[in-house]
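Final report, Chapter 2: Outcomes

The project's central promise was a pipeline that accepts a single protein chain and returns its three-dimensional structure in a standardized token representation, suitable for archiving and comparison. That pipeline is now operational. To close this chapter, we reproduce one record exactly as it appears in the project archive, with the input sequence first and the structure output second.
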Amino acid sequence: MRKVVYVFLLILTAQVAKAQTTLTLADSLFEKKKYTESFELYKSILELEKKSSPSMLLKMAYIKEGLGGYSDALYYLNLYYLQTADKKVLSKMEELSKKRNMKGYEFSDFEFIQTIFYKYYFIICGLVMALAILFLAFTYHLKFNLKRSPILPASFMSISLAILFYILNFGHDYDKAIINQSSTYMMSGPGAGAEVISIIDKGNRLQTKGEYDVWTKVEFDNKTGYIKTDKLKKIAFSN
């Protein structure tokens, strides 16, 4: 068992070291203004390692904006906002979206609360887990030491575990996506034979409402319809 743990730690350490080396190289290239090369490295860290930092995301947005890729710039700025809850970036997103007449970048108070949750996600998970353990210990103490009914602490323990289960399984959900292809059709139903409701340009942000086979139900410009999932770049919380 010790050998297995040791091997696991070695592999984990090697992966972390590799990601850090890649990030250091990407930062070095960025400082040298080799933006295309640095972006590819940042992108590999984000997509393959599933890791990102606020500074990395800002650099990716800066590179894409400089290359005229406004929709990608908005995507990375939105990821940055999820990690930081920095309201200052909202004005930048509004500026970029207005340049290309893109819609869907209005941010509500609820969305701000979501970003606060994402920012402190692991702390919240730890606190809820600690509460569940505390209620478990209290339940045990009442039942076996004091010989009393543990209904109340057991109920709170169950609620804490249910909240923890939801957070771990669905807490990363963020029901927003950006159109990644020009002239994307929004259909009245999840099928190619359905009626075309709207034709949406690349870069517009919309709300997602679940997936149906290869289709995603969306809401955009006060209309509800379906778009092929591969035409959407979903905005997701990342560690």
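Archive annotation: The beta strands are 176-179, 184-187, 196-200, 205-212, 215-220, 223-228, 232-234.
This record, like all others produced under the grant, will remain available to the consortium after the project formally closes.
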